[in-house]
Amino acid sequence: MDTQNTLLNKVLATAAKLRQEGADKPAPEESFGLFRQKGEMIYLVGEAGSREVNLDNDYKIQKVMLSAMRKNLVSCVQEVSDGGIFEALLKAGMPAGLGFDITTDSEIPEEQFLFEDPGTCAVVAVPIEKDEELVRFLFDNNVTVMTLGHVTKGDIRIDDQSYGNIRQI
Fold first, then answer.
1. Check: CATH 3.90.650.10 for 3-24+31-165?
2. For the chain, which residues make up each domain, given as ranges?
3. What pLDDT, in 10s, does the model give residues 102-116?
4. What angle do CA 143, 115, 35 make, to 5 degrees?
5. pLDDT at 82
6. Which of 106, 116, 103, 111 is nearest to 2 (CA)?
7. pLDDT tens string 142-151
8. Is the dihedral of CA 106, 157, 32, 147 positive or negative?
Protein backbone atom coordinates (compact mmCIF):
# COMPACT_ATOMS: atom_id res chain seq x y z
CA MET A 1 0.00 0.00 0.00
CA ASP A 2 1.38 3.44 -0.87
CA THR A 3 1.86 6.28 1.60
CA GLN A 4 -1.22 8.15 0.32
CA ASN A 5 -3.56 5.20 1.02
CA THR A 6 -1.92 4.51 4.37
CA LEU A 7 -2.44 8.12 5.42
CA LEU A 8 -6.02 8.14 4.12
CA ASN A 9 -6.84 5.01 6.16
CA LYS A 10 -5.31 6.58 9.28
CA VAL A 11 -7.19 9.83 8.66
CA LEU A 12 -10.51 8.00 8.41
CA ALA A 13 -9.81 5.78 11.43
CA THR A 14 -8.78 8.73 13.60
CA ALA A 15 -11.84 10.77 12.61
CA ALA A 16 -14.18 7.82 13.33
CA LYS A 17 -12.56 7.24 16.74
CA LEU A 18 -12.92 10.91 17.71
CA ARG A 19 -16.55 11.05 16.60
CA GLN A 20 -17.28 7.94 18.65
CA GLU A 21 -15.62 9.61 21.68
CA GLY A 22 -17.74 12.74 21.16
CA ALA A 23 -14.81 15.02 20.24
CA ASP A 24 -16.97 16.64 17.56
CA LYS A 25 -19.16 18.04 20.38
CA PRO A 26 -16.80 19.29 23.11
CA ALA A 27 -17.82 20.63 26.50
CA PRO A 28 -18.13 24.44 26.83
CA GLU A 29 -15.00 24.66 28.99
CA GLU A 30 -12.96 23.32 26.07
CA SER A 31 -13.68 26.36 23.88
CA PHE A 32 -10.05 27.53 23.88
CA GLY A 33 -9.08 24.30 22.14
CA LEU A 34 -11.18 24.93 19.02
CA PHE A 35 -10.54 26.60 15.67
CA ARG A 36 -12.66 29.72 15.33
CA GLN A 37 -12.46 30.88 11.72
CA LYS A 38 -11.11 30.19 8.26
CA GLY A 39 -7.76 31.81 7.54
CA GLU A 40 -6.24 31.57 11.01
CA MET A 41 -2.58 30.53 10.98
CA ILE A 42 -1.70 27.19 12.59
CA TYR A 43 1.58 26.59 14.42
CA LEU A 44 3.21 23.74 16.26
CA VAL A 45 4.65 25.11 19.49
CA GLY A 46 7.26 23.12 21.43
CA GLU A 47 9.85 20.47 20.78
CA ALA A 48 8.40 18.15 18.13
CA GLY A 49 10.33 14.92 17.90
CA SER A 50 11.86 15.24 21.36
CA ARG A 51 10.74 12.13 23.20
CA GLU A 52 12.71 12.71 26.38
CA VAL A 53 10.83 14.11 29.35
CA ASN A 54 12.13 17.51 30.37
CA LEU A 55 9.89 18.89 33.10
CA ASP A 56 11.60 22.30 33.11
CA ASN A 57 10.96 22.70 29.38
CA ASP A 58 7.38 21.40 29.72
CA TYR A 59 6.70 23.92 32.48
CA LYS A 60 8.23 26.78 30.44
CA ILE A 61 6.10 25.98 27.39
CA GLN A 62 2.91 25.76 29.47
CA LYS A 63 3.71 29.04 31.22
CA VAL A 64 4.43 30.83 27.93
CA MET A 65 1.25 29.44 26.31
CA LEU A 66 -0.83 30.57 29.30
CA SER A 67 0.66 34.06 28.92
CA ALA A 68 -0.15 34.02 25.19
CA MET A 69 -3.75 33.07 26.00
CA ARG A 70 -4.03 35.86 28.59
CA LYS A 71 -2.65 38.37 26.07
CA ASN A 72 -5.24 37.15 23.51
CA LEU A 73 -2.47 36.24 21.06
CA VAL A 74 -4.01 32.85 20.28
CA SER A 75 -7.52 31.74 19.45
CA CYS A 76 -6.88 28.01 19.92
CA VAL A 77 -4.46 25.88 21.93
CA GLN A 78 -4.82 22.11 21.54
CA GLU A 79 -2.32 19.91 23.37
CA VAL A 80 -0.72 17.19 21.26
CA SER A 81 -0.74 13.78 22.95
CA ASP A 82 -0.89 10.08 22.09
CA GLY A 83 -2.90 10.57 18.88
CA GLY A 84 -0.32 12.95 17.48
CA ILE A 85 -0.58 16.23 15.64
CA PHE A 86 -3.30 14.99 13.30
CA GLU A 87 -5.61 14.06 16.17
CA ALA A 88 -5.02 17.46 17.81
CA LEU A 89 -5.92 19.18 14.52
CA LEU A 90 -9.12 17.14 14.20
CA LYS A 91 -10.13 17.89 17.81
CA ALA A 92 -9.64 21.59 17.12
CA GLY A 93 -11.56 21.56 13.84
CA MET A 94 -14.39 19.02 14.11
CA PRO A 95 -16.84 20.92 16.37
CA ALA A 96 -17.00 23.95 14.06
CA GLY A 97 -16.57 21.95 10.86
CA LEU A 98 -13.31 23.75 10.07
CA GLY A 99 -10.45 21.96 8.35
CA PHE A 100 -6.78 22.66 7.83
CA ASP A 101 -4.13 22.90 5.15
CA ILE A 102 -0.75 21.95 6.60
CA THR A 103 2.76 21.06 5.53
CA THR A 104 4.62 18.39 7.48
CA ASP A 105 8.26 18.49 8.56
CA SER A 106 10.30 17.11 5.64
CA GLU A 107 12.91 15.71 8.04
CA ILE A 108 10.39 13.41 9.76
CA PRO A 109 8.40 10.70 7.92
CA GLU A 110 4.80 11.93 7.36
CA GLU A 111 3.18 9.09 9.28
CA GLN A 112 5.44 9.61 12.29
CA PHE A 113 5.03 13.40 12.21
CA LEU A 114 1.23 13.22 12.02
CA PHE A 115 0.25 10.27 14.19
CA GLU A 116 2.89 9.76 16.90
CA ASP A 117 3.17 11.70 20.17
CA PRO A 118 5.93 14.22 19.39
CA GLY A 119 6.73 15.20 22.97
CA THR A 120 5.69 18.40 24.72
CA CYS A 121 3.97 20.55 22.15
CA ALA A 122 0.65 22.07 21.14
CA VAL A 123 -1.21 22.98 17.98
CA VAL A 124 -1.97 26.70 18.14
CA ALA A 125 -4.18 28.85 15.93
CA VAL A 126 -3.84 32.60 15.74
CA PRO A 127 -5.83 35.26 13.89
CA ILE A 128 -3.81 36.58 10.95
CA GLU A 129 -3.64 40.09 12.45
CA LYS A 130 -1.85 38.73 15.56
CA ASP A 131 0.39 36.31 13.69
CA GLU A 132 3.64 38.28 13.83
CA GLU A 133 3.06 39.32 17.44
CA LEU A 134 2.63 35.69 18.54
CA VAL A 135 5.73 34.48 16.71
CA ARG A 136 7.79 37.33 18.17
CA PHE A 137 6.41 36.56 21.67
CA LEU A 138 7.36 32.87 21.33
CA PHE A 139 10.85 33.66 20.03
CA ASP A 140 11.40 36.22 22.79
CA ASN A 141 10.54 33.49 25.30
CA ASN A 142 12.83 30.92 23.62
CA VAL A 143 9.98 28.58 22.67
CA THR A 144 10.34 26.56 19.48
CA VAL A 145 7.65 27.25 16.89
CA MET A 146 6.96 25.74 13.45
CA THR A 147 4.45 27.00 10.90
CA LEU A 148 2.04 24.19 10.01
CA GLY A 149 -0.42 26.02 7.76
CA HIS A 150 -3.86 27.59 8.07
CA VAL A 151 -7.49 26.86 8.96
CA THR A 152 -9.78 26.10 6.01
CA LYS A 153 -13.52 26.17 5.46
CA GLY A 154 -13.60 22.40 5.97
CA ASP A 155 -11.10 20.79 3.63
CA ILE A 156 -8.29 18.68 5.05
CA ARG A 157 -5.06 19.04 3.08
CA ILE A 158 -1.69 17.63 4.04
CA ASP A 159 1.36 18.39 1.91
CA ASP A 160 -0.85 19.54 -0.99
CA GLN A 161 -2.86 16.30 -0.91
CA SER A 162 -6.62 16.42 -0.22
CA TYR A 163 -8.16 14.06 2.34
CA GLY A 164 -11.74 15.26 2.03
CA ASN A 165 -13.95 17.53 4.08
CA ILE A 166 -13.87 17.33 7.88
CA ARG A 167 -17.69 17.10 7.98
CA GLN A 168 -17.69 14.03 5.71
CA ILE A 169 -14.81 11.89 6.90
1. yes
2. 3-24+31-165
3. 999 988 888 888 988
4. 60
5. 83
6. 111
7. 999 999 999 9
8. positive
